[in-house]
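Reviewers asked in the last cycle whether our approach scales beyond single polypeptides. To address this, we selected a multi-component target totalling 415 residues and predicted its structure end to end. The input consisted of the following lines:
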Amino acid sequence: MRLQLLALLSKEPAHGYELKQALEQIFGTAYPSPNIGQIYVTLGRLEKDGLVRSVDVEQSNRPNKKVYYCTAEGREALDEWVDSATEGPRVRDEFFMKLVLAPMTGIADRMTLINRQRRHYLAIMRDLVELAQQTDQDNRPAHLLIEGAMLHLQADLDWLERCQEDLL
Amino acid sequence: MNTPAMHTVNLVKIYQTGGLPVPAVRGIDLRVERGEFVAIMGPSGSGKSTLIHMLGGLDTRTSGEIWVEGKRADTLNESAWAILRRQKIGFVFQFFNLVDNMTVADNVELPALLGGASPKHARERREYLLCELNLTDKADAAPAQLSGGEQQRVALARALANQPQVLLADEPTGNLDSRNTRDVLRLLGEVHRQGQTIVMVTHDARVAGLADRVVTLLDGQIIDDGAIAPTRRRPKGGAGDVVELRG
Ligand SMILES: Nc1ncnc2c1ncn2[C@@H]1O[C@H](COP(=O)(O)OP(=O)(O)O)[C@@H](O)[C@H]1O
Ligand SMILES: [Mg+2]
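The resulting structure, written as structure tokens, was:
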């Protein structure tokens, strides 16, 4: 969450609650709503690292609120983030581990492993299809996120098929 | 037990073209209940098209049995199969097979008319299907004027025109972009809820995710056949759950 918060703060100074609201507004339900405690913990770490700084702003009949702003160092960290390519999806996963180790140790049959995994992915796909139907058509970020998840899942299934062909 | 919509017993297809015999389907026992939606998956060359063509009487079997609603069908001759298809089976080919010198509307209405529907009923059904598939404004076009994805959807509408007992389809979303696939998914979900029996070869996991059961072929044999069990974490309605589902 560090860099999302930093990005928002580079636009304008804000306090913790405003950041929470902004994230909710931008991503809709596409990301789980961040909890305010997490936001303050993250802001604290960013401040310790010198990427943001805070000032106390007096409020009439309430305790002071802390307004955070992005430092030059923070701006640099942000530039570095957007300018670098994002890590691709994981290529090593636990299922792969099982698949490779199964025949060596005789703990499981690979056909069975792959079949079970396929059914599991298809069940997730079914959930995603349902989720897409239930999600407001106007929530573009949410739909893009769901579509991304579906495409990843399709790739996972294609890969299972490749693994299975290899057993012939 | 109820009579299944369709079943096969030790179904085998061996192609013999010139040189070596190619066993494409090697002993398949498949039972499809009425109202069930079965997806058939498997790698390229695993025998999916051969199987679905045999189920529709479009390819002859080498040995084994095919039963449609409790009646033996593999012993029928070509013209008897044609009548059976007209009455009971809708078929979507991987490569559309539309009639070129007829409009889209006529392509879709024809099977219903041949099946004995009144012209009024055939027209209403056609209007409904084309509308569901977002093709209403193509009704008067010739198939050749349509994109691959549009032809594919017309082929699906045609196969459903007759409200067949069984819909057989070979990769009906193979040529569709994601928006068109969504229309097709919605229509399939709807006719399935209305009780349509469906057997569909597909590579698209979104389509398979709609099915009650997935049958996986490998090298001409069934290697997996089972219902798709619900995940432990069902979506509660927020797309935020996607992240959870992936976790
Ligand atoms: N008309 C044909 N003549 C000879 N071999 C065929 C013919 N049709 C399919 N085959 C062979 O049968 C096998 C299964 O093909 P097919 O049923 O088309 O598989 P799929 O639809 O799963 O890709 C393949 O090895 C394919 O080359
Ligand atoms: Mg095929």
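The CA atoms of residues 18 and 115 of chain B lie 39 Å apart. We regard this as preliminary and will revisit it once experimental data from Aim 1 are available.
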